[in-house]
Amino acid sequence: MVLDDDTIAFLKEREEKLGGELIYRAYATWYGRNDGEEREYGVFLYSDGKTLVIEDFERTPTILGIRVKPRVKKEYIKLEHFLPLQSVKRIDKVTRSSADKSLSIHKDVAKNANLFDRIFRKTVIRVTLDDGTAYYFELPELKKLEKLINN
């Protein structure tokens, strides 16, 4: 993949912030945390092998590529979480509906996805920390994140 100058500068900034080379980068198209925090338009994930960073960016809504000005503009609050990889207790797939329920009641009640769920229902990845905090991501690939966390 060819990266433009802005992207290269952005990634270099992130490497400087972490103090090491980025060995993992991904974009989650949906994000939630069991305290009710949610980003419908997704988040950027990156890691240096020690810390997983979750970051979002302010977005202007669009329809068919045309910017739409919302009637009521919500105040944008930057999201940025730094998760030490050693604090990850578990990583698994759960149903999106149970992750949504966890967000609404502010408690992790997400159900592990069984074979039926994986075929017929929308699933997301759940990352649970030692302190019980659960993060939910709609990511295209679980294996790369599992490899990062298990190394």
Keywords, separated by commas or semicolons:
single chain, 151 residues, alpha+beta, PH-domain like, four-stranded antiparallel sheet, 11 strands, 26% helix
Per-chain topology:
Blueprint (H helix, E strand, L loop, with lengths): L4 H14 L5 E5 L2 E3 L4 E2 L3 E5 L3 E5 L6 E2 L2 E2 L12 E5 L3 E8 H10 L9 H6 L2 E7 L4 E4 L4 H9 L1
Antiparallel strand pairs: 1-4, 2-3, 2-11, 4-5, 5-8, 6-7, 9-10, 10-11
CATH architecture: Roll
Strand content: 25-35%
Number of strand segments: 11
Over the alpha carbons, how many angstroms does the gyration radius reach?
16 Å
- Write down the CATH topology: PH-domain like
**Low-confidence runs of at least 5 consecutive residues:** none
If helices are DSSP runs of H or I spanning 4 or more residues, what is the number of helices?
Answer: 4
Strands side by side in the biggest sheet: 3-2-11-10-9
Assign the structural class, choosing from mainly alpha, mainly beta, alpha/beta, alpha+beta, or little secondary structure. alpha+beta
Shape: globular
Helical residue percent? Answer: 25-40%
Distance between the termini: 25 Å
The structural domain count equals 1
The level 1 CATH classification is Mainly Beta
Corresponding CATH superfamily: Pleckstrin-homology domain (PH domain)/Phosphotyrosine-binding domain (PTB)
- The arrangement of helices and strands along the chain is HEEEEEEEEEHHEEH
